[in-house]
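#struct-help
A.M.: can someone run this one for me? Single chain, 168 residues.
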Amino acid sequence: MLSEQDIDAVYKAHANALFSYALSLGFDRETSMDAIHDVFCKLCAERDALAAVVNMRFYLLRSLKNRLLDLCKRKRETIGLPLEKLAEDLPFDLHATVEDELIAHEEQELAARRVNELLATLTDRQREIVYLRYSEGLDYEEIARLMSISAPACRKLMHKALKGLRES
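D.P.: on it. Structure tokens below:
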């Protein structure tokens, strides 16, 4: 069972990454913060169930994505849009981030611009998988579960993304 201090430590360790991920999925700041709050409220309420969690980062990313999808579904139901393929339709926007000090240097600005141009050549799903693998450090099985695809499909999607980046 997690104590309040444990949950506080988990929040401090993962909140920024969760917020970046939610924004990358195309959600606004307010919705993202609300969803993160909801995830941590659930975490507090279900402390006993967390003993079985092996990878807290993956658990939080998955919980956040599910919560955001629930919010999106509720919004679509309210305005009467179809719910099919909701998870696949989320736009994933990934931008290279460079510390403010480094951006001052012209070489860094050029490199960041080039990386963003290269990432823009990828599909939303490819950008999401690159982000989850290299920014969040998830393995292929975790990414596959998070993106609701098989592990072989995950590897194939990553291969296509990297191949596309090499060709560009």
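A.M.: thanks! The radius of gyration is 17 Å.
D.P.: also worth noting: Residues 4-82 form one domain.
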